[in-house]
Amino acid sequence: MEQTSRKKIKEDRSLRMMGLTVKAVLLNSRNQVLVLRRATGENSNAGLWDLPGGGVEKGETLEEALKREIKEETGLESKLGPLIKVSEFPRDHVAFESEKRGLRFIAYVLGNDDQVKIDQREHIEFRWLDLDQAIELFPAEGFEGEKRETLLAAKKQLEMTRALENWKRSLADLENYKKRTEKSNLEFRKYCLEDLMISLIPVLDNFDLSLEHVPKTDKDNNWTVGILHIRKQLFDALAKFGLESIEVKAGDQFSELICEAVSGNGGKNCKIKKILKKGYRLGGRVIRPAMVEIE
């Protein structure tokens, strides 16, 4: 039963196989398109301009067929691009009756484009033209009209591709701009914060200096405790933004990385004799070294 159905389908002329042709808008590295003039001895469309391509042979994929045709007609290696058009012949055309349809692609030359070798039996001339020049070369009607439509479809596809690439590039530029702006804002914030801290550190110094001169008998009175509390409150507020004091004491080894000697004499391995002013870091970086006397 199944074999009978298959035989019936094969005998049904309305279901006969469709013939396919594949042609390409072949572009070089300068975005020029290759056009070919058919030989004057051709059986059909002799002497007219055409695009490289031809029929699909048995067992070939569309890509294999197109790359083979381009190689045979031009001597060039190519890479297949997107499908841009499906061409159908008019109903009154002989090719319509034979169920031929055309698939049109963009393709790209691999390697040098100055190695074009045409078979004079098929083509008598070739030109590399800008896309608009190629479009103007083909009239709007007849055999060449379909090639003009193919070139117009290629132009539209390339314009959309360029627009998409420009959009992606603009999006990337925007992201980079946002990152640069964020980095710049962060650096500006750090600069402003550091400037603020440096301007407030002398206030902490004045608190410390005032407390050093409080008589021992007054160290526990409410006034002194209040001053200590205000000093701590100010430092704690600044510490929330990253300020920290540099912890050094008398007897420690002197280090130029965190200290500045403002008085005293010392050799290579000198020590700290007295802390004159505390040192401070902001975000781990020294913004004011400890002012010390050395011995």
Key terms:
alpha+beta, 6 helices, Nucleoside Triphosphate Pyrophosphohydrolase, 4-stranded mixed β-sheet, rod-shaped, Nucleotide Exchange Factor Grpe, Chain A, domain 2, 295 residues
> What sort of overall outline do the alpha carbons produce when their principal axes are compared?
rod-shaped
Question: What is the number of beta strands?
Answer: 13
Main pleated sheet: 4 strands, mixed
Tally of separate helices: 6
- The CATH class of the domain at 17-157 is identified as Alpha Beta
- Mean of pLDDT: 88
Biggest sheet, spatial arrangement of strands: 4-1-6-5
- Look at the structure and name the CATH superfamily of the domain at 17-157: Nucleoside Triphosphate Pyrophosphohydrolase
User: Which percent range fits the helix content?
Assistant: 40-55%
Task: List unreliable stretches of 5+ residues.
Answer: none
Relative strand content:
25-35%
CATH architecture of the domain at 17-157: Alpha-Beta Complex
Secondary-structure element string: HEEEEHEHEEHHHEEEEEE
Q: What is the CA-CA span between the terminal residues?
A: 113 Å
Supply Rg. 42 Å
CATH topology heading of the domain at 17-157? Nucleoside Triphosphate Pyrophosphohydrolase
Structural class: alpha+beta
Task: Describe this protein's structure.
The protein is rod-shaped and about 120 Å long. The protein is α+β, with helices and mostly antiparallel strands and 295 residues long. Helix 4 (131-137) runs antiparallel to helix 5 (142-212) and helix 5 (142-212) packs antiparallel against helix 6. The chain is built from six helices and 13 strands. The longest helix has 71 residues, at 142-212. It has a four-stranded mixed β-sheet, with helices on both faces. Among the domains are: 17-157, Nucleoside Triphosphate Pyrophosphohydrolase (Alpha-Beta Complex), CATH 3.90.79.10; 242-295, Roll (Nucleotide Exchange Factor Grpe, Chain A, domain 2), CATH 2.30.22. Helices cover 42% and strands 27% of the residues.
